[in-house]
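Handout, page 2. Input:
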Amino acid sequence: MTEVNEPPRVGGWTRFVTARPRLALLAALVLTVLAVLAGSGVADRMSSGGWEDPAAESTYATQAIEREFPDSQPNLLLLVDAGEASVDDPAVAAEAARLTERLAGEEGITGVGSYWQTRSPALRAEDGREALIAARITGDETTMGETLDRIAPLFRGEQGVVEVGVGGPVAVRHEMQTIIQEDLLRAELIALPVTLVLLVMVFGSAVAALLPLGIGIVAILGANAILRGLTEFTEVSVFAMNLTTALGLGLAIDYALFIVRRFREELSAGAEPLTAIGTTLRTAGRTVLFSALTVAVSLAAMLLFPQYFLQSFAYAGIAVVLLAAAAALILLPAALMVLGHRVDALDLRRLLRRKRPAKAPGEEGAAWGRMATLVMRRAPFFALGTTAVLVLLGLPFLGVKFGTADDRQLPSTAQSRVVQDHIREGFPGSPGGGLEVLAEGRATEAQYAAYKERVAGLPEVVRVEGPLVKGDAAYFTVLPKGEAVDDPAQRLVGDLRAVDAPFDTSVTGAAAVLVDSKDAIAERLPMAALFIVVVTLFLVFLLTGSVLIPVQAVLLNALSLTAMFGAMVWVFQDGHLSGLLGFTSPGSIETTLPVIMFCVAFGLSMDYGVFLLSRIKEEHDLTGDHEQAVRHGLQRTGGLITAAAVILAVVMVAIGTSRVTNTKMLGLGIALAVLMDAMIIRSLLVPSVMRLTGRATWWAPGPLRRFHERFGLSEGESAPGAGGTGTGRAEPEPGSEPGSRSETEPTRTTV
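Output:
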């Protein structure tokens, strides 16, 4: 055990968070209770859309048509099944008439029409045994959901001689929202106990294991309260709640793992609790703060996109990351101050320790040190081989096809999904795929007819319906060949927008929304990528003082995502493993999902990268030995990063058990990216690449070196840029791995 000769003078942040720890914990408990109250019912106030660009032509046309022709825009469909009879049978027609009349009499319902009134072929199945009653539910999304909850039980099921199913856009959105809430609760019930077991395996002590879990719960509840507040000012997607749970648990546990681990190391080295907290906050605590900033930067890039679906993930992610870091840096030190040496209480691994001797301090992580030595000895082989494998895993993404989210996101047994499947497979035309053209400006019947004829002559058009005229506005419905959003339908959007007309035209519909969404993302993607790269390069430079390491970090992090993107296409677009995972592949990937998954996974990769690089930098500052620094950094953090990644992956897999396909893809994809990053990038690529770059890894031009000496950050005991000078360390314990050192160096700085 190393004797601590000069304990740190406690000041600054350490004094603030440890002055009255019990009072701080009591205040946190009160705030958490208030957060529970403030965040209650947040899911009911969230929306299930947000994929469209609010400034796009398709969005303008949709809003204008809904405003000018509300009764012609049904969002509720009743599928009337006549069984073995025909829908034209007198008994069936009479029952359908009664249903139509009842529906028209319900409050909040307008624009009711049916096949039996209009005799429109589009409302009758090709086999003649099913037909539709269409209506519009008025109000905002919350009001529409309440109306649907009230009327659906009155119409669903057996009604006289027919069977009725309830579908349409409102039913799909509402059922998706309900399923997400149910799945999120189930994911939490799965993730929490499994996470606790894993934490006990990492720490041994039940008390130490409960601390990260508590920090995660506080972060989730606080983020829910923030999202509830945001719903008062802007639309927030219900899908963002999944990210709140995943990052709240995952990152809070990561941060608490590193802080509790360092605190216990300091205690085992003979430090008093207050001294241990000071050293922990200056080292691991500083790295946690730095890591939280890098993750928040990646998530903030989604604010640059116009779709509120993407912005919602930024709101949720930034809130939960900052709350997790704040809880880890304020509440956790207070709890550690109260617990002191009792942080090791309730050691559940005591029986196992009786059967095998405890490891000497220098032996901890020795296997990771040996692996680092092996990897650096064969650096070219590991660098090239690992890169080739990762690139190969990412190749399926070259065949990605983008689409829109529809009812096929829901499980096949969902009521609204069943109705939409019947419509898609049994009704003529392209249900849900019709393009609508809004015409604005005074025009004659002849001009409308001439325009309709020109549109009908386009190669991808089946037929044109309309126009429906109201004042100076009119709209046409254009039915395309094939699927609603396939390539021909998307080409038709451009063709329609290019047709000459004596009035202003705007095109909307599923394919038009997709085209505009893709254009909006493509326009802003370079800006978002540049933002992430530039800020990440700057932050990693502040941490390391190197020009090369930030570039390596960005490139290796991007490389770690190849498996995730390849699997996204191979599994969710092409449908491999769809039976095992329980989803229906629509043959495309929703346009915004790759953006979300990139920002989240890149941020999490930087999270682990910062923890590893900070320990490598600390050792390099103390010894000046490049290879020893890499070996020591991996030895001291390899096991902990892997444990943190496994725990986060468990949380993401729990999210991935969702019955909604996009949520399943988000959870499983990020889980794969996290595991690949921790087990492949940090274990193989980082040490091999740093071995190849050698001492040049730490080079920086004079002006940048001086900037880092003044403003840089470091987890180490010595100032940035101190080279091989430092405050000194204890010599390695006998039997430890070459290059390993105990973490017991004396502290000489004020905290």
